[in-house]
TrEMBL record:
Segments passing through the bilayer: none
GO molecular function terms attached to this record: hydrolase activity
UniProt keyword list: Hydrolase
Family recorded in the similarity comment: Belongs to the UPF0173 family.
Record bears the keyword Phosphoprotein: no
Key word Hydrolase present: yes
Domain Metallo-beta-lactamase span(s) in chain numbering: 7-188
Full protein name: UPF0173 metal-dependent hydrolase XJ44_02645
Length: 224
């Protein structure tokens, strides 16, 4: 499996079977790597309804005929925007897909979808655990929660560290203590000043826990 970080909370997972894009915030994303060309996308996972996560879901689902997986409310909203292939889930639910088993996990955050002056209810925010060639946890936008202990032992944890809207570095290190993954990749930091974080300190503190921390710059990939 190849894991590519595309800035903010956007990850591309290329497996032997299918390609998965998580939280496709591309248009307007200052950290999205310039001139990066997406491969064919089979599935799009959306953790919650905020614009910097739902991003280009409508356009990409049409371009690639991709299936969008998210909570029920976001899937219903996307259908109203013309998205043809959706698979609604909710917190705690798990389903087997072509790429493996997918489980939706809790996240402490919001999920409102802003359209003009209106805020549309976006259901519960969440994260995802993909159980396939490797087990990968994408936390979405979240604060620290004891529920993370239930994810103990996943291979890779993709954790926000930017503070303000999500966990800061200290809380994200505590999350690593709870999860005890084999590897951590930080995300959701330094896109804007309000989520500026010291990623080097995060890496140092994580590795004190004997957990491998890999800092990917936007556009960089890791073979796992």
């Amino acid at each position: 499996m190849r894991v590519t970080f595309l800035g903010h909370a956007v990850f591309l997972l290329e497996t032997n079977k299918k390609n998965i894009l998580i939280d496709p915030f591309i248009t307007g994303n200052p950290s999205f790597p310039k001139n990066f060309s997406l491969p064919k996308i089979d599935y799009i996972l959306v953790t919650h309804g905020h614009g910097d996560h739902i991003g280009d879901t409508v356009e990409l689902s049409e371009e690639f005929n991709a299936t969008v997986i998210s909570n029920f409310e976001i899937c219903s909203y996307l259908q109203s925007k013309g998205v043809k292939k959706v698979h609604p889930m909710h917190i705690g639910g798990a389903t087997n897909f072509e790429f493996g088993k997918l489980k939706m996990t809790p996240a402490l955050h919001g999920s409102g979808i802003i359209e003009g002056h209106d805020i549309i209810y976006g259901g519960n925010p969440g994260g995802f655990v993909i159980y396939g060639e490797k087990s990968i946890y994408h936390a979405g936008d979240t604060g620290l929660t004891k529920d993370m202990e239930l994810l103990k032992g996943v291979d890779i944890a993709l954790l926000p560290i930017g503070g303000n809207f999500v966990m800061d570095v200290d809380d994200a290190v505590k999350a690593v203590e709870f999860i005890q993954p084999k590897m951590v990749i930080p995300m959701h930091y330094n896109t804007w000043d309000v989520i500026k974080a010291d990623v080097d300190r995060f890496k140092l503190e994580v590795e004190k826990l004997n957990v491998n921390c890999v800092v990917l710059r936007p556009g960089e990939s890791l073979e796992v």
